[in-house]
Structure to design on (447 residues):
């Protein structure tokens, strides 16, 4: 057995990698900020920079347009906007980063949901000339719904308002009050000029009144701590391993990626949704036996008892098992072009488990501009966020999204063609739940 100890586990740093997303209204300068961040942190390869310089010259620009480092689609470059989520990987001496540059157009709000769903920090840009606008509030609300723990307000284009401190202070105060009302736990405001490079990587000589960190400094130092030993341990089973060879005639292992928490040999566990219990007899990791394993390691658990376990089952500590249910109430972000309607038959995918389901109610749709509720809309269309109640054909072991972003989330899928319809977050959101109305059972998928 491995000699891995709890002290060794506690010493493993989870802050070496930061996932963050950028968002903002159209022309606020998101892609320019990302390009400046990559360029000034020396994270751009020579051939990439040469390609950007060539493309900029061909468009009649004297200086390189750093936005082209992320706007890779032809339509994006021609229109000067971001359409798809652009992912970039870079690193400094202090931290590694996975960056998601998300679109600013209202019709692409669903793309921000995709980019921010795994982010630990969101950078929301605001044009200093325009202040907090409707799309700014929309992006703040999405970040709050997705439980992004850190939000940076980057007040961009300060060079166009003569680097005036009162302009920055007014925008920061308005945004902070709004985001705080949504429950965003931490908000950091930074005045910048992405085009000139002020306060992006290097401190600005034009804003000596600002004494806070630059964008990169904040990204490098923001605490991103994942309590590996304190969160709910969850292992969605992906595959059952039974070699049935002469060397391993009785081997039966349950393989998957640990979604949260830690598992230890000798620990009593419960398999959901069946509810059967056993003890962990062994843990295999990369071909070796270990005493302990933690998220996000991919492992194989061996149990003392032969239990009927298959893909989609969830292995959890017996003393920390979530309740199973067939009635799911959640906030969903609708991402498909086709609407989601009451009575619609869908597939619900939660971790490795996919079950049939039916949309029983859509009690309300959220108006992100002022956080008001539109009761009983009957359907949701692309980019809508609303409360839904779904009845599943089989029990599910869902955590609250507030407790676990991994095991508290799910997808609604069109069973006809596999299209993703909506991304769901189980449990309470910051929105007020509207009074639900009863919806009659629908023949065919009545659970």
């Amino acid at each position: 057995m491995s000699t891995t100890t709890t002290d060794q586990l506690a010493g493993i740093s989870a802050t070496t990698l930061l996932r963050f997303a950028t968002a903002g209204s159209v022309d606020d300068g998101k892609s320019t900020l990302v390009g400046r961040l990559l360029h000034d942190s020396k994270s751009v390869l020579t051939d990439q920079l040469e390609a950007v310089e060539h493309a900029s010259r061909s468009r009649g620009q004297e200086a390189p347009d750093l936005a082209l480092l992320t706007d890779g689609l032809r339509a994006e470059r021609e229109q000067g906007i971001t359409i798809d989520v652009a992912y970039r990987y870079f690193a400094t001496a202090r931290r590694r980063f996975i960056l998601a540059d998300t679109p600013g157009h209202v019709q692409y709000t669903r793309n921000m949901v995709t980019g921010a769903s795994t982010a630990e920090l969101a950078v929301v840009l605001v044009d200093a000339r325009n202040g907090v606008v409707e799309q700014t509030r929309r992006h703040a609300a999405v970040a709050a719904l997705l439980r992004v723990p850190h939000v940076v307000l980057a007040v961009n284009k300060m060079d166009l308002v003569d680097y005036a401190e009162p302009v920055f202070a007014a925008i920061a105060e308005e945004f902070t009050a709004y985001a705080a009302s949504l429950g965003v736990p931490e908000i950091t405001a930074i005045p910048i000029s992405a085009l000139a490079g002020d306060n992006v990587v290097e401190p600005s000589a034009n804003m000596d009144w600002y004494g806070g960190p630059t964008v990169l400094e904040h990204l490098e130092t923001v605490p991103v701590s994942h309590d590996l030993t304190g969160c709910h341990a969850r292992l969605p089973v992906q595959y059952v391993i039974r070699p049935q060879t002469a060397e391993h005639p009785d081997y039966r292992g349950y393989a998957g990626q640990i979604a949260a928490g830690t598992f230890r040999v000798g620990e009593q566990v419960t398999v959901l949704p069946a509810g059967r219990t056993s003890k962990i007899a062994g843990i295999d990791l990369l071909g070796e036996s270990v005493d302990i394993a933690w998220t996000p390691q991919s492992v194989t658990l061996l149990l003392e008892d032969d239990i009927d376990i298959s893909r989609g089952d969830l292995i959890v500590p017996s003393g920390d098992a979530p309740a199973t249910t067939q009635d799911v109430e959640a906030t969903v972000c609708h991402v498909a072009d086709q609407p989601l309607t009451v009575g619609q038959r869908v597939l619900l995918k939660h971790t490795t488990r996919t079950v049939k389901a039916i949309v029983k109610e859509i009690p309300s749709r959220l108006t992100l501009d002022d956080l008001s509720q539109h009761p009983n809309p009957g359907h949701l269309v692309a980019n809508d966020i609303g409360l839904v109640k779904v009845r599943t054909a089989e029990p599910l072991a869902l955590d609250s999204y507030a407790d676990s972003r991994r095991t508290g989330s799910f997808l609604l899928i069109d069973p006809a063609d596999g299209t993703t319809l909506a991304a769901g977050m189980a449990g309470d959101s910051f929105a007020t739940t509207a009074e639900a109305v009863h919806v009659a059972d629908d023949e065919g998928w009545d659970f």
